[in-house]
Write a structure and sequence with these properties.
alpha/beta, Alkaline Phosphatase, subunit A, nine-stranded mixed β-sheet, three-stranded antiparallel β-sheet, 17 helices, disordered N terminus
């Protein structure tokens, strides 16, 4: 391996290069004290357009439920076995859904494969905001850009721009966005043109973070090269004082030293607090563990989030970015959706396991999750046992500071009323009507994380004509 390739690949975080030497000043790796966390946002992007009308469904017995079943029964009856098993909506309800009621008497079903989400809802930690509009078109690329940037007017194909997570980091000032995904999302991008990752830490593999010191496998060729490089750059550092300030390699050596200190500080913290990653988190992404998620990538992200909280003060972490792919369910939606949703919200799966491991650290009281997706999906099933691209959807907020319940009309009567029997459910291509703009919800999230930041991150939320469903009080989304 060439030296330049090794240095590039050895960086646990390519985005750290944008932090600058001031942000990488040495810090003492003192023993970890699990108190004093600041409020933190974790944004989970469901890439592909998740049909959350499959996650939340109406209780049988109403006119709405009858129309829902008429329009969507093909999703559930995708093979001969299921056609026998699910002959009525009551069969589906009894087999697949858990009856749930919020404080205002909204009664509906949450899919059984999301058992932990149902538990959290019943404890008052989940807000479901109905009829939310994120993107107003049905293209994946443009819709994802709109949602990640938090800008309904985002120009197509313009990815060199700020994201709403990055804007929040700047609004807080002494904060960074931590990305635990393979690639850094536009969501994390900052406001500095030409340096979008200035306030991003890319922690996509926290147990292999920073510049290698060559200690992991001392006899390997890579370890020998790592030790040689460390000694080489240490020697070069001693030459810096003898060179002019405009010496071409001066800035490079500053970055190398800063990156090494930063990685060493974090790795020392991990060794002090959690020398071995908790087995329950390792199992989420390890083949043969017995609990590996269908998406081992999401399992690794959960483990990275845990480690990132151990180093939250080193990272200046107030925002984190996760993602789960595979929600474009044009066909076989039942199988695909259920597998995905269990990975995230299933009992003993991704987020429940992460929450249990974070509990001893004292993090959970100051943590809120937002779940966003490209767009909603159409009301009627298509011919391939799935649903096609739509617009409106539900938005989910989860956290102990959330004032749980249903916000807005979960199953609008307008969807089953029409002229001469032609309801929205009868119209090909009809989708959930967006009545609340997503930035109105997320602006309140920002204000919870850091007061008075919502209008800075989403300037339109301060306009005189906010798009909020009639009767919905978004100011009540969080507990006082």
């Amino acid at each position: 391996m060439k030296r330049r390739d090794f240095l590039r690949n050895a960086l646990g975080t390519s985005a750290l290069l944008g932090l600058g030497t001031a942000s990488l000043a040495p810090r003492l790796a003192n023993a970890f004290v699990p108190v004093g966390f600041q409020k933190t946002l974790i944004n989970v992007m469901l890439l592909g357009g998740a049909d959350l009308r499959y996650l939340f469904v109406p209780e049988p017995g109403s006119a709405y439920a009858n129309k829902f079943w008429e329009a969507r029964n093909a999703i559930y009856r995708s093979n001969a076995q299921n056609q026998l098993k699910y002959q009525t909506y009551g069969d589906v309800w009894n087999d697949l859904y858990l009856p749930t009621t919020d404080a205002n008497g909204h009664r509906f079903g949450i899919h059984k494969r999301a058992g932990w989400l149902k538990q959290q809802f019943d404890q008052g930690h989940v807000a479901v905001i109905s009829n939310v509009l994120g993107s107003d078109n049905r293209r994946h690329d443009q819709s994802q850009l709109i949602v990640n940037s938090g800008d309904m007017q985002a120009s197509q194909y313009v990815y060199d721009r700020d994201g709403w997570g990055g804007r929040l980091a700047y609004a807080i000032s002494n904060a960074n966005a931590v990305s635990v995904t393979r690639d850094i999302s536009v969501f994390c991008n900052g406001i500095e043109s030409g340096n979008r990752n200035a306030k991003v830490v890319h922690a996509n593999d926290t147990r292999n973070f920073g510049l290698s010191n060559g200690n992991a496998n001392p006899n390997s060729a890579n370890s020998k090269l790592a030790r040689a490089l460390k000694a080489y750059y240490a020697a070069k550092q001693r030459q810096v004082a003898k060179k002019r300030a405009d010496w071409p390699y001066h800035k490079f050596l500053q970055h190398e030293a800063g990156l090494r200190r930063f990685g060493d500080d974090f790795n020392t913290r991990l060794q002090t607090v959690s020398p071995v990653q908790p087995a329950s988190l390792q199992a989420l992404y390890t083949a043969g563990s017995g609990n590996m998620l269908n998406s081992s990538s999401f399992g690794l992200q959960c483990a990275n989030i845990y480690d990132s909280f151990i180093g939250a003060d080193l990272f200046d972490m107030r925002i984190a970015s996760m993602e789960y792919t595979g929600w474009d369910t044009h066909n076989q939606q039942k199988t695909r959706f259920e597998t995905n949703i269990e990975d995230i919200f299933g009992t003993g799966k991704g987020l429940e396991t992460l929450t249990q491991e974070l509990e001893p650290l004292g993090v959970n009281a100051d943590l809120v999750y937002t779940f966003n997706t490209d767009f909603g999906r159409q009301l009627r099933a298509n011919g391939d046992y799935g649903t096609d691209h739509g617009r409106g959807n539900y938005m989910i907020l989860l956290g102990r500071g959330v004032n749980g319940g249903v916000y807005g009309e979960m199953f609008p009567e307008s969807e089953i009323s029409g002229i001469a029997g032609q309801t929205r459910f009868d119209q090909q291509g009809a989708d959930i009507e967006g009545l609340t703009a997503f930035d109105q919800v997320l602006g309140r999230v920002c204000d919870w994380v850091a007061p008075n930041t919502g209008a800075q991150v989403f300037p339109d939320t301060a306009s005189g004509l906010p798009m909020v469903e009639t009767g919905v009080d978004l100011n009540a989304l969080f507990l006082a």
